[in-house]
Amino acid sequence: MARNPKARAISHPPLFTTFKPAGVVGTKLTTITLELDEYEAIRLADYEGLEHEKASDAMGISRSTFTRLVERARKKMALMLVEGSKLVIDGGSVHFKENVYQCKACNHRFRASILEEKKECPLCHSSELVDFAKGFGHGVCCHAKKEKE
Ligand SMILES: [Zn+2]
């Protein structure tokens, strides 16, 4: 798969990927897709409270691109809240800086380098791990991107 040279840097994969209003059957809902770069823009600007300048640096994009991204993300969040849509976080041209794993045996969640795949839980040594970057189809590609930097 060709790598987009404009891939935006995302700190780590989101822990939750699907949101929907309570009490509505899933199949009746309109789905909005929040792309990973839009998610990161919201996370940096509104959750971490970073200035747009710092946030755009963190993602490796221009400030004007960041502003457009965060505006698009907020519009989607507003649509979701007002219209009761289902929201799925996926896609976007991105690479992760770090990975997140969760152990299926003891539920321990931990961040780790994207450079090498973790095979066991540091606490209980179980090999039953959920690899969040892999869940988004990422990992090796982020690694390659990182080597270029
Ligand atoms: Zn464990």
Report how far apart the termini are: 19 Å
Largest sheet: 3 strands, mixed
Count of helical segments?
5
Write out the CATH superfamily name of the largest domain.
Winged helix-like DNA-binding domain superfamily/Winged helix DNA-binding domain
Q: What is the percentage of strand-forming residues?
A: 15-25%
Note the overall shape: globular
Bound molecules: zinc ion
Average predicted confidence as pLDDT: 91
* Portion in helices: 25-40%
What Rg is obtained from the alpha carbons, in whole angstroms? Answer: 16 Å
Task: Briefly note the structural class of the backbone.
Answer: alpha/beta
Low-confidence stretches are none
Provide the number of structural domains. Answer: 2
Identify the CATH class of the largest domain.
Mainly Alpha
Spell out the helices and strands N to C: EEEHHHEEEEEHH
Q: What is the second-level CATH architecture of the largest domain?
A: Orthogonal Bundle
CATH topology of the largest domain: Arc Repressor Mutant, subunit A
List keywords for this structure.
single chain; Rubrerythrin, domain 2; binds zinc ion; Arc Repressor Mutant, subunit A; alpha/beta; 149 residues; three-stranded antiparallel beta sheet
What can you tell me about this protein's structure?
This protein has 149 residues and is α/β, with parallel strands linked by helices. It has 2 domains: 18-89, Winged helix-like DNA-binding domain superfamily/Winged helix DNA-binding domain (Arc Repressor Mutant, subunit A), CATH 1.10.10.10; 96-148, Rubrerythrin, domain 2 (Single Sheet). The chain is 36% helix and 20% strand. It is built from 5 helices and 8 strands, in the order E-E-E-H-H-H-E-E-E-E-E-H-H. It has helices at residues 36-47, 52-59, 63-83, 132-135, 140-148, and strands at residues 8-10, 18-19, 31-34, 86-89, 94-96, 98-103, 109-113, 129-131. The strands form 3 sheets. Strands 2-4-3 form a 3-stranded mixed sheet. Strands 7-6-8 form a 3-stranded antiparallel sheet. The protein has a two-stranded parallel sheet with strand order 1-5. A hairpin with a 5-residue loop joins strand 6 (98-103) and strand 7. Helix 1 packs antiparallel against helix 2, helix 1 packs across helix 3 and helix 2 crosses helix 3 (63-83). The longest helix has 21 residues, at 63-83. The two termini are 19 Å apart. The model has no long low-confidence stretch (mean pLDDT 91). Bound molecules: zinc ion. The site of zinc ion has 8 residues, from loops. Residues 103, 105-106, 108, 121, 123-124, 126 line the site of zinc ion.
